[in-house]
Amino acid sequence: LRSKHPSVWMDVDDWSAGQFTARGGGQLVGAAYEILERVLPRFAHRITACSRELQSLYPKAELVPNLIRLREVPVRNRKPAATDRIRVAFASSVTAYHGHAPFLEALVRRRRDCSQIDFWILGDGDSLGECRGIVERGGLGDVVHCSGQLARAAMLQRLTEADIGVLPLWDNRLNRARFPLKL
Fold this sequence. Notes:
alpha/beta
């Protein structure tokens, strides 16, 4: 790894192998994670972890929390009126990994039921163009809005203004095992 990629970066995100299998993840995937947890740190120049618990497994790791601290969240001042549209927010990287596209395709199929929804995709990524195409072809331009990349304060403000937050993921065993952590 070092000879081909001189700056290997390892990001320890969401769980350890033990946490993954304890929450119902497959034994084979858990074993693969355990091997990676033991081998990759030897080659990595930089390691980041999203929690103190995971950081304790990797003493060289830099803590980069991917969580929202409640004290950082702005106070919600919005008092929705009965005629207001329901604000739904999906905050994440816009990638094929997350379920943006299937979620939008479901909205297209249920288009006539969406007149009271304002759906915000909060983030940016390589699948944003695909999502915008689904919105345009499906006639959802008045329902779905894409913010692009936002600063942390703006992201928290948008989440606070939302009535509902969603995190669509593909329906598979891995996502069912880690869904509570991600949400």
